[in-house]
Amino acid sequence: MGHATRHPLLVSKVASNAAFLVPCLVAFTKGLIATAALTLAVAIVSAFYHLSDETHLRWLDQLLALCLVATNVYMLAAAGIPLPNAPVAVLLSLHALYHFYFRGEDDWQWHCSSAAITICCVLAHTS
Asked: Is residue 2 part of a domain?
């Protein structure tokens, strides 16, 4: 008694932010400290945003997500739009957008796709 039961959807939205730890570690090991810090900030702020029942930090969650998108685009452009990273990142972006716009932004696959996109972009930039 007295324990609040968390809805499984909320748990998946918060837990799926752990996917951002992988590109954070990849960026860190490749020497992209600012990208690693941004990716970690995205994971932390997004988790707190979802834990607040999406009532706090929305503006910061969206701002950091846009910064990560811009960083990913920059890394691909700076790498000369390399194969196969760029097409894979585009396909993952389409997958992410499908889940965001057609399945609802509460779908955990949105976070996982976004993390995978960042991995592709970091690897393209450092290869």
From this structure: no
CA 11 distance to own-chain centroid: 17
Structure tokens at 20: 């951002």
- Output DSSP code: residue 117: H
**Tell me: the pLDDT tens digits for 32-88?**
999 999 999 999 999 999 888 788 899 999 999 999 999 999 999 999 999 999 999
pLDDT, one tens digit per residue, over 81-111 is 999 999 999 999 999 888 888 877 556 888 8
Containing domain of residue 112, as a range?
A: 8-126
The answer to whether the pTM exceeds 0.90 is no
Q: What type of residue sits at position 125?
A: H
3-class SS string, 82-125: CCCHHHHHHHHHHHHHHHHHCCCCCCHHHHHHHHHHHHHHHHHH
Burial code of 6-15, b = ≥16 C-beta within 10 A, e = fewer? eeeeeeebbe
Classify the phi-psi angles of 57: left when phi > 0, otherwise alpha if psi is within -120 to 50, otherwise beta.
Answer: left
Residue 3 lies in a domain: no
